[in-house]
């Protein structure tokens, strides 16, 4: 099969999930329209197939500089970096997938097994593989890539490249703005609040609190209501004149009290500069002294570009949080368990399907069932949005009742239309965020979604575990492989050898067997094999959400999704 066909198939695969109903179609149109109006301020337009898409030159400039710094020392990016931020070289540089793979791995370390990236003597086919690897890995970390195909990246479509890059960069910037990963964030607790209240906040909300916390300490005005500001981006009114930024930098700059950090005193000399742009430049020169002149130009500060100012603040937070974990107070740290691997995978899966709002906290963000209802649509269960669903903004009084009604409807749909097994699960449990019961529903949604993809490929034939196991066994034996599986609980899966063999059966010659450990395997060997297997699966075009540890530990649910995705990929080969 030529590489052109493969590209088309990848695109169909990505779009396939969406083509089932008129609702979905109009939804997709809405998204496409939205992409067309992305640009803010100075814009450029590119026409492709008669469609005009504008993109933001500010974003291009900011992301190029960020990439240039982030990947500066990576020998595999020498062919592409440094890029000129004032040119379109970014869009060309994305075309072979290498830089993209590296950025994904920077945002979520260990997502991509280095060994699976094609780096030398690239051909259209091996480039295609890199782009598959990048796109499927981006999905796996929760990027919404439904409208982006490998061909778009290959051609360097600016609005799509920038859209994807922003998602990847943001995931990296936000990774540590999360209480369970950074307990010092509890310093942001306000009177009368519990840790639980704080844990419900989105990373954007936490960032704004953080900025306000430091501004308050500086005796500078803070924003008390951010509900409206957060919509336009946290930084508009707060930072546009750079004065709040000056104070923020001054608060967070290292004071020389920690051994490994020399003292840096922020100069406030530019604070009283009359001209907005010059003041912004002065402020950024101070940020530069902290190694934080990133994402914004003086013009972006003055214009209040929401995306880029958010990134600037997030980067400041990551470099200099300057918070002290509160001690000896009445705080129940036991709550801070952090999310499980399974919870994260479910969340990434949902976000990759583009649910709105973005799911930051699995239970809290599903408590009004709106995301669950969107997921029903993805598995072809029609939702009566007009008559059965309460949509935000919810009324001040009776908010929870409205959410509970949605939850009840979600359970009802599951029991009646979707025919899920939901014994003992009520709307109240979703609304309360009961982990066990919410996970039970979410897993059935993900499982059905995975099977639907298979059924669509198999002309509507029903798919189930047995059919997948049989297909795996048959495909392995037809390719002359000696591995086989008895079920998704088969201990042999812990070696990842059946997965690796299956990948090689689907795409003969794709596996470098010299990289695969065999014989009696240590825990480390198993993990190496699993990392290789997961990245290889993504590289040949399977949208695998599971993680290497799921294979090593033989987690039956996630194992099922791996084999189902590979079966889907294998059926497209026919
Ligand atoms: C991905 O990240 C891990 C951990 O940071 C690193 O060991 C590995 O070399 C990286 N791989 C790529 C492809 O950048
Ligand atoms: C928030 O503050 C802005 C002005 O700073 C005001 O117009 C708006 O009504 C306030 N919103 C809320 C919800 O209090
Ligand atoms: C969640 O629901 C299960 C089953 O009803 C129950 O056993 C468990 O205690 C609940 N968990 C919480 C935290 O309420
Ligand atoms: C797959 O192969 C295993 C091992 O030979 C066998 O036990 C099992 O019955 C087979 N399963 C299916 C569904 O073919």
Automatic annotation (TrEMBL):
Cellular compartment(s): Cytoplasm
Organism of origin: Oncorhynchus kisutch
A Gene Ontology term for the protein's cellular component: actin filament bundle
GO biological process: actin filament bundle assembly; actin filament network formation
CDD domains recorded: CH_PLS3_rpt4 (cd21334), CH_PLS_rpt1 (cd21292)
Residues in the signal sequence: none
Gene: PLS3
Principal localisation: cytoplasm
UniProt entry keywords in alphabetical sequence: Actin-binding, Calcium, Cytoplasm, Metal-binding, Phosphoprotein, Repeat
InterPro entries registered for this protein in UniProt: Actinin_actin-bd_CS, CH_dom, CH_dom_sf, Fimbrin/Plastin
Molecular function GO labels: actin filament binding; metal ion binding
Function summary: Actin-bundling protein.
Any one Pfam family match given in the protein's UniProt record, by short name: CH
Name under which the protein is recorded: Plastin-3
Domain of life: Eukaryota
Residue span, Calponin-homology (CH) domain: 57-173, 201-321, 340-450, 462-571
